[in-house]
Specification:
Layout lengths: L5 H21 L13 H17 L7 E3 L8 E5 L7 E5 L19 H7 L2 H7 L8 E5 L12 E6 L1 H10 L8 E2 L10 E6 L7 H8 L10 E9 L5 E9 L14 E2 L5
Antiparallel strand pairs: 1-2, 2-3, 3-5, 4-5, 4-8, 5-10, 6-7, 7-9, 8-9
Helix pairs in contact: 1-2
């Protein structure tokens, strides 16, 4: 007979219960459903991942819980059940989304920068280092999401989007301007920044650079795609689209991502 130590059994049961809670929550939130529990992600962060880290030193069911800056500036990383490779970066503070004043506060955590650094978890799933222009980060507008906890989608970019951005990159400037061609039928604004890491905060670039955006952040979606710029430097292309319910544009930058990482 194999005797399992009680402490091991408790940890195992707790991990199983946590994953069952994740499945129960996330399987009920297909994109765009009106019946979704809009607090499912917040409950996972607040009631499962953070307490497990604080009480037991493990982040389950999240992959990472970082509280070095305290709960107000901490974050978690969660493997999304949608897609083979998608991870979500979320604050440990309750921040509803792109429309929250918290993302523009003077001391706001640069969650996009942390999300970019966390792309290694996607690489761990595909078992290879991905070229920077294969990786994307996306935050959807209020109209393009089902959850009221800020979450940045970390995953591969669609190959057709990657190729279109490579072609357009020489004409993209350091200030916002319309992209020459639509992406997935939607007219995005684009700008680019240099740097191996994302030292600027895309939320603030949007609020400060696009007329009217600061007062209507909830209508906007942001996408950050890694790039090797035409001058040979590392950088990023940042994209913005504004939701327009009259035309059916929900402002869902996630549409530019490939949740299989196979294209």
């Amino acid at each position: 007979m194999i005797v399992v130590p009680r402490a091991t059994l408790v940890r195992t049961c707790r991990a199983c219960a946590a994953w069952l809670a994740v499945c129960a929550a996330l399987l009920l939130i297909p994109l765009g459903t009106a019946q979704a529990d809009s607090d499912a992600l917040w409950n996972i962060v607040h009631n499962l991942c953070v307490p497990d880290q604080q009480q037991h030193g493990t982040p389950a069911p999240c992959a990472v819980v970082d509280l070095r800056g305290g709960v107000q500036h901490g974050y978690v990383l969660l493997k999304d059940l949608v897609g083979a490779t998608q991870f979500l970066l979320m604050p440990t503070a309750q921040i509803t989304g792109i429309e929250s004043p918290a993302v523009l506060a003077p001391d706001a955590t640069n969650y996009f920068a942390i999300a970019w650094q966390s792309r290694t978890y996607v690489e761990g799933v595909v078992h290879q280092t991905l070229p920077r222009d294969d990786v994307s980060l996306a935050v959807n507008s209020v109209y393009g999401r089902s959850q009221n906890q800020l979450h940045i989608h970390i995953d591969c970019v669609r190959s057709d989007i990657r190729d279109a951005l490579r072609k357009s990159e020489p004409t993209i400037r350091a200030t916002w301007a319309p992209l020459a061609a639509p992406l997935v039928g939607h007219r995005y604004l684009a700008m680019k920044v240099e740097g191996e890491q994302l030292d600027v905060n895309p939320f603030k670039l949007l609020a400060d650079g696009v007329p009217g955006a600061r007062d209507a952040m909830g209508y906007h979606t942001l996408v950050v795609v890694g790039a090797t710029l035409s001058d040979g430097h590392d950088g990023f292309i940042i994209l913005d689209d504004r939701a327009d319910t009259a035309t059916g544009d929900t402002g869902s930058g996630e549409e530019l991502q490939d949740h299989t990482c196979t294209s």
